[in-house]
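sorry for the late reply, my laptop died twice this morning and i had to redo everyting from scratch. anyway the thing you sent over, i finally got around to it. pasting the sequence first so we're on the same page, its 268 residues, then the predicted structure underneath. double check i copied it right bc i was rushing
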Amino acid sequence: MANEAILTNKIFLCAALPLIKVIANDVPSLSKKFEHMHAVFQLSAIDPDSPGGKVGTHFTVNNGEWVVCADKVATNAFVDLEFKSIDAMNSFLKGKIAPSTLPKMKGALKYPKVFAALMATLLKMSSVLTAKEAPAAEEDKKLMVKCYFYLLSSGISQLNKQGHPAVHDWTLKSPDRVYAWAVDGYEDISAYLRIKAGKSRAGRGVYKRAMPFFTMRFDSLDSALGILMSTDDMLESTRQGKLIMDGAPEFGAQIGEYMMLVGEYAQG
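ok and here's the structure:
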C-alpha cells in the first residue's frame, strides 16, 4: 500500500484535477477563455522517488478541445504550477495555503492568458469542492453534483489501484459488478465504478452495457447535495425517499463508507 501522502496525491492527480476540464467546459465564462487557446499546462510536484523526479497532471487545449493526461508529467508545458513536494501540493489543494505550500508559477509571465485562465478555473474548482452550503442556482447545483460523482467514482478506483487495504480487499473478493450514482431526471449527471477481482475502472455517464449491480439514486439535486456535502443523514434520506438504494442496502452502506474515505483524503 502507498503511504497516506501518496494516496492523497493520487486522488488529486487522477480524480480531482481532471475536474478542471469539466468545470472549464460547463461554465460559460470559463469556456470562453479557452475557445482560441493552444496550450499545455500542468500542476506538478517535485518527488525524487518518481521517474523524472516529479509527478503531475497536465492538460492540452486546442481551440477549446481538451485532452487530460492524469498522473503524467509534460516536458513542454507553457505554464507549470510546480510545488516543492507532494506534501506541499496536497496541502495547497486542500486549501491550506501558506508560503510553504505555494508553487513556482513557471511560464506565468510568458503566457499570462494561459495562466489567468488556469487560475480562474482552479479557483472555481476549489469553490465547488470546498463549499459548505449548496448553491442556489440550478446550473451550479448540477455542476457540483457532477463533480462530486466524478471525484468519488475515480477516487475509489484510485484507492483500489494504490492498494488501500479495505478498498482493494473489497474489489479482490468481488465478481464483475458495476456501482453507479444517479439523479432522477438528470441522465447527464451520473457516474459509475466497475470492479472485478481486484481491478477497477471509473466511468462518467450512464453505464449502458448492463444494469448496474447497485445504484445510489437521488430524487433531486438537493437530495444528492445533502448526502454529498454530509449535511443530511443517509438513513433519514432513505426513509424519506430522497435517496433510493437500487440494490441491497448493505451495499449502499459499503459505498457510503468509501465515499467518505475519498472525502477525507481530498478535503482533509
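The CA atoms of residues 194 and 204 lie 11 Å apart.
thats about all i looked at so far, will dig more tmrw
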